[in-house]
Amino acid sequence: MSSGTVLGVAVPAAVVGAASFGLASAIQHRVTKQVPQVATFSPRMFWDLVRKPIWVLSIGTVIVGLSLQVVALAFGPLVLVQPLLVTSVLFGAAFAAWFAQRRMDLVLALGALCCAGGLAAFLVLARPSGQGSEFTGAPVLPLAVVLGLLVVLSLLAERWLPGEFGVVGLAVATGVLYGVTAGLMRVVAGQFRTGGLVEPFGHWTLYVVCVVGPMGFLLSQQTFQRGRLMSPSLAVITTVDPLASAAIGVSWLGEEIAHSPAILAGEAVAAALMVGGIAVLARRSEQLGRELAAQEEPGSWG
Hints:
Blueprint: H1 3-31, H2 44-49, H3 53-75, H4 78-85, H5 88-99, H6 106-126, H7 141-160, H8 163-195, H9 204-226, H10 231-252, H11 261-295
Membrane topology: Multi-pass membrane protein
GO cellular component, one term: membrane
Organism: Saccharopolyspora flava
């Protein structure tokens, strides 16, 4: 495929897709605050949200983003498209600030940029290869236990840590659930390609996706609702999701990532940048949250 096609189709599709994801997140962050808060994972929240037309519209925006992501991947390599999709963090922060009629907080923008830049650099350096869609026979349990413990600890952190720090815990759990869903969906898609429509129903993978996927989406809405600010939640979810998916691809599906000493060093720097960005977002959002609470103003800084 020519470079002109990649630049003319894949890049615009990925960027507009990222903007669609960011817009949907900003809308959902705002609308979830208009419904009563419920217990974690309570599906009653969906009943309240579906009666909000603007929230339903945000689901359509997500579908547009997903469609553009498919187009971008059809015309461009994964190593180009994935980093561009990460810019949804920045689009989301900009839309959230616009909806709240505030200027985007520069510290929050810097934290979001660190997360997006660190993740993009990690993906470019790692260069995931292979389109694994079948389990290789490697043990599933070790990584499953690690991911499960990470979700549990993140949910406990939401109870133990105050304010926006606890919300970051919810966002980590959401990102893990999204990543597991994405990783297992590759397996379901492979089963469909090889055995037809009925084939996935004969395997446990589809049923796990049907449970974990809605759980992740519900938790994302509750994360947006409980966080005074959107940027930290969206940045953490966007960062953790592809990392968890990549871990599944490498551990369970036989995919490979580049791992020379120089690349490993670069990946370590990228990981440090991501962690630093999350720390900046958590600290700054807690500070701004206290300021907004003192002013007793609804809304978001982005």
